[in-house]
Amino acid sequence: MFSIIIKNMIFELWPALIAGALAGFAMVIMRTLMKKMGMNLRMSITRMWGVMMGLSGSAATFIGFWIHIVVSALIALLYVWIFGLIGVTGYYWVWGILGGFIHWFIAGVFMGMIPTMQSGTETEPAPGFLISKLGGQEVVTFIIGHLMYGVLTALLYAYFAGLYA
């Protein structure tokens, strides 16, 4: 495996990237399933990334999906780096919940800075602080998605890095 050493702390690069990418993919699947079950979710995380890049239509969704996966993988590097700094050696799911909660809050603050986006015929509404402008179902889904991401990232990283005995 390819290891990264930062100040006597080692973490595995590929397990972190794969765990984050899979957890990001799970977020997309979760939102898709919730929409299929009838939830009124106005925001599309994949389309939002694409529209932020100035794209519209299916290109916005396709490119946005891959941006979401790459960003998810990179955020996982931050998770495992912090886990290593604080010395996490077990209870990975608990640390994943904590990481997901912090991630949710930081992402929610970031979302509050995003204006209404227009690209071609695509319009993404301004989500507001903690996406509060999009309604209660979006807020709950946003929290659940980030908690799920945190738990999956922590557990998948621990598994792929061989941290389970």
| Beta-strand content estimate | 5-15%
Fraction in helix: 55-70%
Instruction: Indicate the radius of gyration in whole angstroms.
Output: 17 Å
Main β sheet profile: 2 strands, antiparallel
- Please tell me what the overall shape is: globular
What number is the mean pLDDT?
Answer: 88
Q: Tell me the strand order in the biggest sheet.
A: 1-2
Number of helices: 5
Q: Report the order of strands and helices.
A: EEHHHHEEH
Structural class: mainly alpha
Domain count = 1
**Uncertain parts:** none
Q: Could you tell me the number of beta strands?
A: 4
Task: State the distance separating the first and last CA atoms.
Answer: 18 Å
What's a concise summary of this model?
Helix content is 65%, strand content 8%. The protein has 165 residues and is mainly α.
Topology:
Layout: E1 3-6, E2 9-12, H1 13-36, H2 45-52, H3 57-86, H4 92-112, E3 117-119, E4 122-124, H5 136-160
Antiparallel strand pairs: 1-2, 3-4
Key words describing this protein structure:
5 helices; globular; 165 residues; two-stranded antiparallel sheet
Overview of the molecule:
It is built from five helices and four strands. By secondary structure, it is mostly helical. Helix 1 runs antiparallel to helix 5. It starts with a strand and ends in a 5-residue tail after the last helix. The model has no long low-confidence stretch (mean pLDDT 88).
